[in-house]
Amino acid sequence: MFWDWNYTFEILPMLARASVITIQATILGFILAAVLGLVFAILRMSRNRVINGATTAVVEFIRSTPLLIQIFFIYFVLPEFGIVLDAFLAGTLALGLHYATYCSEVYRAGIEGIPRGQWEAATALNLSPVITFRDIIIPQAVPPVIPALGNYLVALFKETPLLSGIAVLELMQTAKILGSQSFRYLEPITLVGVFFLVFSLIASAANRYAERRLTGIGTR
Amino acid sequence: MPLKSIIVTAIVAFAAGLIFASFAGYELFIPGLLQGAWITIQITAGGAVLAVIAAFTAALAKLYGPTPLRWLANCYIEIFRGTSALVQLFWLFFVLPQLGVTLSPMSSAILALGLNIGAYGAEVVRGGINGVSREQWEASVALNMSRALALRRIILPQAVIAMIPPWGNLFIELLKATSLVSLITISDLTFRAQQMNQATFRTVEIFTLVLAIYLGISLLITFGMRALERAATGGTVRGRAN
Fold first, then answer.
1. Is A73's Cβ below 8 Å from some Cβ in B?
2. Is pLDDT above 60 for B63?
3. pTM for the full model?
4. What is the ipTM of this complex?
């Protein structure tokens, strides 16, 4: 069996449409991961041992269990408690939650990299904790870790095929359906692989560029 | 420190689970889940062995191989890191038979996941070898060692110790990735969870229990890797000196 270009061009529009869903899930998931990750990172710095310990435990728990099971959990178990989400939303939520735990480690590294003097100056100026974080710490902690966050954006993007596990019509699910209709799996699945490879390579290149541009910001 | 809190949460979560869920009639799904867990462990172990072999081969080829071999290693690393594990798994499972190579689901699973983690591992191995200080190489040259001998006797033993913690993380990634094999009809823990869920509708109990089993296996990996690190360093220096 050889590569069939006619069939390739026939399925390309369908895969292109499906890739929109993949990209939507990536963007929504990553926004959630970036925001929730920061929340986790700040909660983990709390002096209250209960908050600190509970957040650490939740983060470690989510990081140590498979994303696919978490997707199933949100999609199948939450309805038992009255929270019904459609497949796309459940999948995106799981993606965001899973990667938030990775992002929180990144933010934590950024926050810990801030010189002690900044905290002391904020205390000396009698700034409230909220203002200290919002105006002093976060603006300095986040830019240096953007490349590391970028790596997790690429990682999250590569995990979106897992949404096919709950039948979201993203790229992988579409490729599988096309394959089962025509009994030709070579083209659809290879095209999906190429799509991810191309995007990942572009994203890593962009990330390296960002890293070069941003390395000056964190150091004074 | 995080380990302790994981164990605490596991206990708290389990206790909370007991309040919400009744485990009456558990004999309906527990044996099935345990059979699934056994398959998951087998795939993790097989994948881990393959990943270590692939990672060392690719890293050594990339660092010291002749140009074509270096190029090949680079292609392997970029392709397997640049595409999704699920795409690789589906490619081996659905596409390879159409090209005339039929693998059993189990071999496709171990091959795909092992090669996937191996590609990430190759960078870990490369980083570990590059992390050994230059003086070690210079001292080996001064002692008239060949490059292969220096690598085997001086560099790798030091590099391997520095690699143990990142490999621990990769093995946990591998364990998590094994849940994907449920999508190519292997009856691993995830597959069993869905099967038992459809048969008994004990959704909450089953998925909570499955999360706990995965957490348990990943804690075992963490403990194992820590013990390995202690044994490798002989209780002396942690990681490499710099």
1. yes
2. yes
3. 0.87
4. 0.84
